[in-house]
Amino acid sequence: MARIIAIDYGTKRTGIAVTDPLQIIATALDTVRSHELIDFLKRYTAAEAVESFVVGMPRKLDNTDTNNTPHVKGFIKQLKKAFPETPVYEHDERFTSSMALQTMISMGTKKSDRQDKSNIDKMSATIILQSYLTTKK
Q1: What is the pLDDT of residues 70-87, one digit of tens each?
Q2: Tally of domains in the chain
């Protein structure tokens, strides 16, 4: 089987998570600057088989768009253009940042590491991917 990549897209930086080849476990992969994301994904997919992309879609509690939703939709268009053969799925990302922070606290992560937003972005992508895997089953 090929891996699934989850993307927690932000205008400045993006958290990335990936499954193992059997698609059982979601693991934080990296945080990259958003303008370098497509190049990063091209390098990654050249080295690893990727079945699909899961992109966190920001929504408000009432299911309306947030300020970041148009940016994510624009990125999805770029992603589909760069990887036309690879399916792209949207997945609800509500509360993932706060869940990521709580997870890091419960894991005993140092405060200085929790204040590093790139760590929260990676953890958010991991939560998005694990949630996607759960709903996929």
Answers
A1: 999 999 999 999 999 999
A2: 1
Closest CA to 43 of 88, 1, 5: 5
SS3 of the chain:
CCEEEEEECCCCEEEEEEECCCCCCEEEEEEEEHHHHHHHHHHHHHHCCEEEEEEEECECCCCCECCCHHHHHHHHHHHHHHCCCCCEEEEECCCHHHHHHHHHHHCCCCHHHHHCHHHHHHHHHHHHHHHHHHHHC
CATH number of the domain that 72 lies in?
3.30.420.140
Tens of pLDDT, residue by residue over 110-119, are 666 555 566 6
| Predicted structure pTM score | 0.85
